[in-house]
């Protein structure tokens, strides 16, 4: 018979919370969903507060474990790294730091969540049932795609939303590729792709970038990048793979077909909060609402941090900061119960 280990959590409704995990009952005071800078910082703080957090890292839904930094190259603006740091290395270090203080990790997606009761119930994609007193949601955001049938047709056949993941593939080497967007991500991706492609067309719907001036300078100084302003993607054409794109100039309505082997979408992100719909209060864009200046959601014992609450800043350092806040809010809330 399996021995049951449990810890009293002094909850008013239930003294003992058991989670059946790997054949052994364990107790989770805090479960953190997401493993980007927000989730991992929450894990460091919660672990140091001796809350033994379980981090459900994510797997396929809404990106990859570690979040958007995993597909970011060099991060030059995270404090403490004067020479810059690779996004994936930063995530690795944050994870090691959380592990050092006792956080445990589960590389799965949350499939369903019942967050309304005093005991929060989560089910992962593989059917694992997890219960917790408190939950910190740090599920981040995922890439938006243009709503064109040809984007779906050529997805994975020349169309991508991650230059860092796919840019070095043989089909794009020494070939013309396009990046759609005018934010920091689009300009960063254009620079990255210019290392592999013969030419990068940076296609923006307006005549002004919203990206930072520093990022713009890099693009303007790069002879392999051609900026195409006031233009939108009408269609992606090809056979088995992408062969060309049709661009419409929004000022003249003229449509031009340009030979192209790759199309990289970089038009922003959507929050990964679908699993909480109907329970958590979301803003019209789908971001989880929190009672600022705290990370409390409308549900008792549920906290949210990182890009899933942040349509404005969306920076790793801000996500880390709100992750810290969420862990402190959760700890205080648990103590008050
Ligand atoms: P973003 O700043 O929201 O930019 C999205 C871009 O896509 C905008 O230029 C927007 O055009 C365009 N766009 C949106 N919908 C479109 C559509 N349907 N068709 C055509 N174009 C469309 O997103 P982001 O670039 O992913 O950046 C997100 C955040 O991360 C920002 O805060 C950014 O500063 C930060 N970031 C920082 C770095 C860095 O510092 N190294 C790198 C990457 C990202 P409009 O401009 O016309 O709205």
Write down the overall mean pLDDT: 90
DSSP E strands, number: 22
Shape: elongated
Identify the CATH homologous superfamily of the largest domain: FAD/NAD(P)-binding domain
Bound ligand species: NADP nicotinamide-adenine-dinucleotide phosphate
Give, in spatial order, the strands making up the sheet with the most strands: 7-4-3-11-22
Describe the structure.
- It is built from 7 helices and 22 strands.
- It is of the alpha/beta class.
- The chain has 2 domains: about 15-140 and about 270-335, FAD/NAD(P)-binding domain; about 145-265, FAD/NAD(P)-binding domain (3-Layer(bba) Sandwich), CATH 3.50.50.
- A 5-stranded parallel β-sheet has the order 7-4-3-11-22, covered by helices on one side. Strands 13-20-14-15-16 form a 5-stranded parallel β-sheet, covered by helices on one side. A 3-stranded antiparallel β-sheet has the order 8-9-10, with no helix packed on it.
- The longest helix has 21 residues, at about 315-335.
- It is elongated.
- Mean pLDDT is about 90; it is low at about 1-25.
- The chain binds NADP nicotinamide-adenine-dinucleotide phosphate.
- NADP nicotinamide-adenine-dinucleotide phosphate binds near residues 146, 188, 205 and 210.
- NADP nicotinamide-adenine-dinucleotide phosphate (NAP) binds near residues 232 and 268.
């Amino acid at each position: 018979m399996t021995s049951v280990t449990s810890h009293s959590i002094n909850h008013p409704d239930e003294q003992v919370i058991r989670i059946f995990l790997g054949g052994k009952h364990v107790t989770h005071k805090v479960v953190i969903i997401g493993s980007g800078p927000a989730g991992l910082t929450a894990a460091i703080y919660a672990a140091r507060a001796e809350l033994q957090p379980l981090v459900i890292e994510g797997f396929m839904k809404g990106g990859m474990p570690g979040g958007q930094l995993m597909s970011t190259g060099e991060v030059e603006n995270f404090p403490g790294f004067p020479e810059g740091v690779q996004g994936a290395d930063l995530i690795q270090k944050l994870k090691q730091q959380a592990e050092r203080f006792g956080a445990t990790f589960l590389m799965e997606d949350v499939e369903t969540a019942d967050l309304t009761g005093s005991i929060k119930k989560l089910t992962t994609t593989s059917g694992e049932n997890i219960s917790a007193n408190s939950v910190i949601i740090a599920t981040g955001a995922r890439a938006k795609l243009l709503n064109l049938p040809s984007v779906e047709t050529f997805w994975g056949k020349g169309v991508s939303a991650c230059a860092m993941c796919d840019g070095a593939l043989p089909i794009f080497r020494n070939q013309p590729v396009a990046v759609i967007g005018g934010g920091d991500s689009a300009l960063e991706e254009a620079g990255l792709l210019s290392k592999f492609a013969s030419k990068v067309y940076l296609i923006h719907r307006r005549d002004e970038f919203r990206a930072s001036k520093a990022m713009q300078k890099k693009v303007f100084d790069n002879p392999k990048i051609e900026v195409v302003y006031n233009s939108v993607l009408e269609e992606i054409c090809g056979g088995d793979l992408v062969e060309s794109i049709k661009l419409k100039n929004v000022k003249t309505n003229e449509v031009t077909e340009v030979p192209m082997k790759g199309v990289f979408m970089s038009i922003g992100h959507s929050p990964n909060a679908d699993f909480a719909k109907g329970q958590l209060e979301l803003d019209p864009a789908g971001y989880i609402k929190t009672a600022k200046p705290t990370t409390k959601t409308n549900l008792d014992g549920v906290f949210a941090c990182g890009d899933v609450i942040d349509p404005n800043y969306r920076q790793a350092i801000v996500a880390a900061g709100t992750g810290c806040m969420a862990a402190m809010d959760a700890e205080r809330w648990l103590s008050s119960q």
